[in-house]
Amino acid sequence: MCRASSLPFAIPSPLRYGELAGGTGHAAYGTITGMPETDTDTGWLSREQLRDARDRLPILYVNLVPVRVDERSQVSSVGLLLRATEQGQIQRELVSGRVLYHERLRDAVLRHIERDLGPMALPQVPLSPQPFAIAEYFPTPGVTPFHDPRQHAVALGYVVVLMGDCTPQGNALDLAWLSPAEALELAATPEMGGGHGVLLRQALAHLGHAV
Amino acid sequence: MCRASSLPFAIPSPLRYGELAGGTGHAAYGTITGMPETDTDTGWLSREQLRDARDRLPILYVNLVPVRVDERSQVSSVGLLLRATEQGQIQRELVSGRVLYHERLRDAVLRHIERDLGPMALPQVPLSPQPFAIAEYFPTPGVTPFHDPRQHAVALGYVVVLMGDCTPQGNALDLAWLSPAEALELAATPEMGGGHGVLLRQALAHLGHAV
Amino acid sequence: MCRASSLPFAIPSPLRYGELAGGTGHAAYGTITGMPETDTDTGWLSREQLRDARDRLPILYVNLVPVRVDERSQVSSVGLLLRATEQGQIQRELVSGRVLYHERLRDAVLRHIERDLGPMALPQVPLSPQPFAIAEYFPTPGVTPFHDPRQHAVALGYVVVLMGDCTPQGNALDLAWLSPAEALELAATPEMGGGHGVLLRQALAHLGHAV
Amino acid sequence: MCRASSLPFAIPSPLRYGELAGGTGHAAYGTITGMPETDTDTGWLSREQLRDARDRLPILYVNLVPVRVDERSQVSSVGLLLRATEQGQIQRELVSGRVLYHERLRDAVLRHIERDLGPMALPQVPLSPQPFAIAEYFPTPGVTPFHDPRQHAVALGYVVVLMGDCTPQGNALDLAWLSPAEALELAATPEMGGGHGVLLRQALAHLGHAV
Question: At A175, which helix (H) or strand (E)?
């Protein structure tokens, strides 16, 4: 079973913070600490290059709804990441991240799940590349229900079943498993801002839940 | 433009009522007057035969969400039928009805739209037979969010754009056009019981709305 | 791993044959032996009652594409049932069967997989009830690409990942695992008649394959 | 009705050719003349900037399948663009193009249809942003069925119904309307290279056709 980590709401180290000042995840808004947006491990883009691209092109993302299911594939719980904003607020998030150059969507899904939930999460990538929804994040609020002050991003939404042990990694303080009903309720609050709550509710509607 | 009918909430005539005691639409629950369920005009099934089948087989339905769209195909309004129950309550409904023997799904969509909204509604049947959702109506409440005391019905959900003039027909007292926001709100009330509200919200989620 | 059974193309026993003369699966056409269509174990419908309903109502089915996937959820092989027709011809089929009264779609999927592939197949029911396709089988050939001389059936198509050991049961002579490329080729031949080949190719298209 | 243009296979003027040497559309491969890739009219990216981004990020596209439908929304014909490659070969293409910074997907669909088919094509943008397929174009052949030597592009596939008069614009030499059967056949030939043929066949599978 995938246990929620017992990590306290640790304050990221200054070094880490400095490295990541730009923020990265969708809901991050450049204010949530700790999301290694510039993929320095892969070296695809320098921070300047990424900022440059963001001023000129829509950036492709995946937005992932981690779930556990029972033996009939009914969702028993939804996994939400807990992050702290720079202002010290707690934010609930989906697993989210960019698709890299020359990276297949399947590999982007696996990489982001591993980055946030660890190498033992055993994710089941969706069979079909058809996403359940497309989220258009605009830097201008109000154009769509999705908003990202850093950029124009277009995210493909997928539900990902986790079969293994999840240990929140990197900048995620914790991972909380909620029942679908709890998740639906939380998704309607400001704790899931910027559109992640909207996408979560769309996901549960797609899975047949009353939303 | 498709105008809402100016019909008052007329009480159906006793004759009509007697004819239709069995009820018919999903949300009808055998209590909403006026839905000619036995399709006596087509003569496919006698009422007894239909009751018989309903005790033994899931019955195939289509559940249709009538919408008007702007020039970019964004939903500008959602059309909901107004019906009176036998108890005199007002109920809001989607367009809904059975698929007949040897009838194509496309033709069932067209037939039910014409039956409820008249011959000038100019519906656009969805291009793909893939429904946006499947609603499983059980005679036992609580098995799914969908409930129909008369039968086990499985409905394919489709969004149908109307291009023409709608005039509520048959047992529909009226047709109301609501903004997506109004429709979402109404869909969460008991005025849309039995599951039609749930399906409507799933439809709007599928179309990209925040639900 | 799910091994193809080593059963030869055994001729069903007369008793069995007699019991099942009505045939049952979609591609069966009433001519393929061995599909226990009347669900005598569940007692939902006598054969006469089912025949009666078939003359008057579309019958709801599920059509299931059994697959094995690699660790990135890419289809590595497709499982096809082998059946003998009464004329002694070999037919390749998807797993297919009726949805029973008061049965959820998820349960129908699990039941039919177990009936044909045994109790250790460990199927993953799709997360969402939204099917990848709807197959409309008409008793009249040519109305759609799907044909079933026995009835008007409407089948919801799902791809089902199998995680366990498959042992062909009941009337299936054998189960063959083919690569997606082999399956696509076979699906275009008369060995997959009545529409199962069409649905299989639609499934692989949906999964992103070149068809 | 949307008539196919009577334009001969005109050779683009040198000036035009010079302007567009970089090529642009998916199937263009940098070799098909005439697709104004750098959107000089909108001024979003200089050619150098776009080339730069292409070396580092997946570029977001829409791939559009233009169709005409009958009154039951069954596809009666598929519209394919005719282009000449620099080598003088004729290529059939879908309508395809980039999504611009701060552009909604709906607007990108409308813009590219107008660019290729003129202002009177009266396209119906799909109701839902959910694409029927995702095409991952890699600069390296063989990674997926989709190939674009210029870039890593991820295209959202949509079917677009055209209600008006189409007049091939810009770099399209002509627009041909084919029956679904003819389109399926053509889609399997080298005349529709790079993946447009694959996507077209996936689209027709999604619409319920036998592929």
Answer: strand A174-178
